[in-house]
Design brief:
Order of helices and strands: HEHEHEHEHEHHHEHEHEHHHHEH
Radius of gyration: 20 Å
Oligomer: single chain
Structural class: alpha/beta
Number of domains: 2
CATH superfamily of the largest domain: Periplasmic binding protein-like II
Shape: globular
CATH topology of the largest domain: D-Maltodextrin-Binding Protein, domain 2
Length: 348
């Protein structure tokens, strides 16, 4: 079931600081690395300075199983969790997340379409892209998704996240399926077989990564010449570490992250106060300065005034000539089955 709520005007604001005043700390779980650093600078430091509430940082790799274990045991230590759209939807369906009361989100009407979930409040737009180390290809450079799968023309190892989401989409695009037709094809047994057959062509050259920080590190260390990665991690390595990386804006999968609250949390009021604070345009509109992910409210988007920074975002017009929106409903319905086949494929 697609759990994204379309944008409607929902409700009036109340001050967050008054209701949050009782809390001494709040535990926020995210993905670490450059991404958590962007949240620390744009959200967590100002939040503590303005409210006196300490943000306790925790880190995970997006595993829904960790959240489920807390909820099922009743030992809930996370107050707010940054989650990708697929796990938000799956967690909602499985009853491990609180349903969002959108009347408590002060600027609910300003969120862009696709960023309002039944169990999550949007925080960023981002993309899974292909990137390469320019030093690995002194002559002709890769420029398309098909090049990722062309080991003869562009030799070397390939890095990829160890899960089927996005990888199957990339395989079909690399095999010539138009971006607009990817999920139409992937929804058939023949399409799934086609995706795995394409993956077979690079299987012996794959190097798996399991956290976002590993992808740029694999490129930097020369362990791979090309890798799938989250665009913000690669751009941070280019900007902050002067790495000779290039992002290929072709066939990328665009997605949202959202803030979610574990089911049964004893700190729901504090969680809503935190979410309202970081959703204010003056805070959300700052994050893109630290990592190249886009905001999800119109007011925050209007704060992106530097053309050089805007050009690095997945939503920049020049970066959206051939892209795929993440299909939350498809993956919520099919992840378990396709992941089982994917893990079996890895083990062969």
């Amino acid at each position: 079931m697609n759990r994204i709520i379309k944008s409607t005007a929902l409700a009036a604001a109340v001050g967050f600081i008054a209701t949050a005043a009782y809390a001494e700390s709040i535990t926020v779980t995210s993905f670490g690395g450059a991404y958590s650093n962007s949240q620390r600078e744009a959200y967590w430091k100002p939040y503590t300075a303005d409210t006196g509430i300490t943000v306790i940082e925790d880190e995970y790799n997006g595993e829904l199983s960790k959240l489920k274990a807390q909820v099922e045991s009743g030992n809930i230590t996370w107050d707010v969790v940054d989650m990708e759209s697929g796990p938000v939807t799956q967690g909602c369906d499985e009853g491990v997340l609180e349903i969002i009361d959108w009347s408590r989100i002060h600027n609910a009407a300003d969120f862009i379409e696709g960023s309002k979930f039944e169990c999550g409040v949007g925080t960023i737009t981002w993309a899974t892209i292909i990137a390469y180390n320019s030093n690995a290809f002194p002559g002709e450079k890769p420029s398309t998704m098909a090049d990722f799968f062309d080991l003869k023309k562009f030799p070397g190892k390939r890095g990829y996240n160890k899960k089927p989401t996005v990888m199957l989409e990339f395989a079909l695009i690399g095999d010539g399926v138009p971006a607009s037709k990817v999920f139409e094809v992937l929804s058939t047994p023949e399409g799934v077989n086609r995706a795995f057959a394409k993956l077979d062509t690079i299987k012996d050259n794959l190097v798996w990564w399991e956290s976002g920080a590993q992808a740029p590190q694999l490129l930097a260390d020369g362990e791979v010449t090309m890798t799938a990665a989250w665009n913000g991690r690669i751009q941070a390595a280019i900007d902050n570490e002067k790495q000779p990386f290039t992002i290929i804006w072709d066939g990328q999968v665009m997605d949202f992250d959202g803030w979610a609250i574990p089911k049964g949390s004893k700190n729901i009021d504090a969680a809503y106060d935190y979410i309202n604070y970081v959703s204010e345009a003056k805070h959300m509109g700052e994050q893109h300065k630290y990592v190249s992910y886009g905001p999800v409210t119109n007011a925050a988007g209007a704060m992106i005034t530097d053309p050089a920074l805007a050009a690095k975002l997945p939503s920049a017009p020049q970066n959206m000539n051939n892209w795929v929106p993440h299909n939350t409903a498809f993956w919520a319905d099919n992840f378990d089955e396709l992941n089982e086949r994917f893990l079996a494929w890895i083990g062969k």
